[in-house]
Known about the structure:
By secondary structure, the protein is of the alpha+beta class. It has three helices and four strands. The two termini are 26 Å apart.
Amino acid sequence: xxxxxxxITRQARELLRGIKKYISEELLAPEAAQNTIAVLKKxxxxxxxxxxRIELTEEEPWRSEGIHRxxxxxxxxxxxxxxxxxxxxITSVIYVARDQAAQLELMEME
Length: 110
């Protein structure tokens, strides 16, 4: 079975930090923030094996560009697979209730 290196882009790391900060400081739930980030990171790490099991996103033009969308808790984790270099690039983490297309417009493809 092929293994992939999972890389979280700068933008995705910033989004994860923002999620943690929001849950911890705005919702006053630091333990929930820790748990949410732990689950997100665990699921992201799982992409090192068979990342293609996750379907492509429905939104265009990102679907045509090979962007996958994984549902984790109340978030979507967006990524693309670099088969040539055996890498998975995590490009965004977006709260499910947000306008996905509008948020994807802000996504950088590192």
